[in-house]
Amino acid sequence: MHRVAKEVKVLVLTTSTATEIAYRVASKLNVPIEVLVTHYFPNGQIEVVPPKSNTHVDEVCLFQSFPDRVNDRLIELLLALQAVRILKPRHLTIVLPYLPYTRSDKPVSTGALLPFSAIAHLIEQPCMTRLVTAELHVPQLAVAFRCPVVEIDTMPMFAQYLRQSDLGSVVVVSPDLGGAKRAERLAAELHVPVAVMRKIRHGNVKESIEILGQVKGKCAVIVDDEVNSGESLISAAKLTLSAGATSAIAVAVHPLFTLEAIHRIEQSPLQHVLVSDSVPLTSVATNKIEVLSLTEILAEMLH
Question: Does residue 132 fall inside a structural domain?
Answer without folding.
Answer: yes
